[in-house]
Amino acid sequence: MRITVLSGGVGGARFVSGVRGWARRDAAAQGLPDDDAHDIRVVVNTGDDWWLAGLRIAPDHDSLLYSLSGQNDQDRGWGRRDETERVASELQTWGVTPEWFTLGDLDLGVHIARTAWLRGGVPLGEVYRRLGARWQLGATLVPATEDEIDTYVHTADGQRMHFQEWWTRHRASIPAVRFENADIERARPAGEALDAVADADVILLAPSNPVVSIGPILGIPGMRDALRAASAPVVGVAPVIGGRVVRGMADACLTAIGVDTDAAAIARHYRTRHAGGVLDGWLVAEEDAASVAGLTADGIASRAVPLWMRDADTSATLAGDAIALAQNLR
Q1: Where are the alpha helices (DSSP H) in 133-186?
Q2: Which CATH number do you get for residue 260?
Q3: The whole model's pTM is what?
Q4: Domain assignment of residue 231, yes or no
Q5: Which of 9, 33, 164, 254 gives 259 a disulfide partner, CB atoms 3.0 to 4.6 angstroms apart?
Q6: Starting at the edge strand that comes first in sequence, how are the strands of the sheet with 202-205 ordered?
Q7: What is the pLDDT of residues 8-20, one digit of tens each?
Q8: Quick one: angle between helices 105-119 and 124-132, nearest 10?
Q9: Residue 113 maps to a domain
């Protein structure tokens, strides 16, 4: 089975790890090697990327890379395990990097390699391939676009700042009124991303931030059209449980675009394919089971399932529930 996931953020990385876990369970049940039964491709949000100290930083890609490779720091929830920060301290002493954004030494090695390749003219998709080749990921990561579409936040007090400053430094405490992806109107979906959508048997929207993780992917001209034209069903997973975000400050992003922090409201924000949106199916938490009937009546096939990804097993079970709904919709 060819499974394509649109993903961003730590929640997306956990979900993709769950998809791989489900695929390996299924392969074992069929008596096949771990990664032979299913082809998992992940279309990665690049809107969080930014330039810092002359280096191209890609938080969403790296969260996936570290999670799938087992290199992630599970205590902090971000970055690499067994990390040191000597270089970061030196950079901050020189005033080259801000104190609110720390780059670990191992993490810096990834950023330097990425930047060196990009500066040498290597396409971003090939950079992803080279970085992923170091470990056995069990999935192929592809950028949503080769173009830079950095996210900027327009705040209620008139500021315009990069998303990373608003999110990491200010913890989304300054009310936002608008999100902007620079030059996105001139961007194009990466060829590998379009192929991943067109060739898929199942397309999943990870429980990532709808505004700044999935939103930039869908905002690339041509991406929504590709999803609407896909033969595979598109199933999303709610990033909200019982009216509360699972991780991070996605509620601040949703408020800025006038969407309630509610699983059903987010599904209606994505809209059904027949109404010009992208969804065929939607998973909500058991705590939000009351919304299933209304969503189904609106044309979004919905199910209430356990949504908490507490460990590898629960993440794989959630991925299996999303895939099962997609298979039913076929």
Answers
A1: 163-164
A2: 3.40.50.10680
A3: 0.96
A4: yes
A5: 254
A6: 140-143, 39-44, 2-7, 202-205, 234-237, 281-285, 301-305
A7: 999 999 999 999 9
A8: 140
A9: no
